[in-house]
């Protein structure tokens, strides 16, 4: 069986990527704690790093094989805390898997 450079086979047969996907979120600064709480409440589906505290711009990092769960989680979270997902030219939809060399 051929494996991509970006995946590795786990003992139980599941393939796990060896890299992380990311997206960028802008949120009201006073809502950042709630955003973190809601994200962590989803079983640590992803984590985020603050890139710009004043603008409340964060980078959300997650495993590509969890993209559908993250997209569903973000949709549900948006009902409690408004935010905007910022796409960059190299980003595709949250559910896409980027092509790596």
What do you see in this structure?
By secondary structure, this protein is an alpha+beta fold. The chain has a domain at 21-86: Alpha-Beta Plaits, CATH 3.30.70. 20% of the residues lie in helices and 29% in strands. The protein is built from two helices and six strands. Strands 4-5-3-6 form a four-stranded antiparallel sheet, covered by helices on one side. Strand 4 and strand 5 form a beta hairpin. The longest helix has 11 residues, at 67-77. The two termini are 19 Å apart. The relative contact order is 0.24. Mean pLDDT is 78; it is low at 92-101. It comes from Desulfocurvibacter africanus PCS. Pfam families: DUF4911. This is DUF4911 domain-containing protein. InterPro entries: DUF4911 (IPR032587).
Give a brief outline of the structure.
This protein has helices at residues 32-40, 67-77; strands at 7-9, 15-17, 21-27, 47-52, 57-62, 83-86. The protein has 101 residues and is an alpha+beta fold.
Topology overview:
Elements: E1 7-9, E2 15-17, E3 21-27, H1 32-40, E4 47-52, E5 57-62, H2 67-77, E6 83-86
Antiparallel strand pairs: 1-2, 3-5, 3-6, 4-5
Protein name: DUF4911 domain-containing protein
InterPro entries: DUF4911
Organism: Desulfocurvibacter africanus PCS
């Amino acid at each position: 069986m051929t494996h991509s450079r970006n995946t590795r086979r786990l003992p139980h047969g599941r393939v796990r990527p060896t890299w992380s996907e990311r997206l960028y979120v802008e949120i009201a600064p006073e809502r950042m704690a709630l955003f973190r709480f809601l994200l962590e409440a989803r079983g640590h589906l992803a984590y985020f790093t603050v890139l710009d505290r004043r603008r409340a711009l964060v980078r959300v990092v997650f495993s590509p094989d969890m993209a559908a769960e993250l997209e569903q989680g973000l949709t549900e979270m948006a009902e409690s805390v408004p935010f905007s997902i910022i796409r960059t030219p190299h980003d595709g939809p949250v559910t896409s898997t980027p092509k790596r060399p």
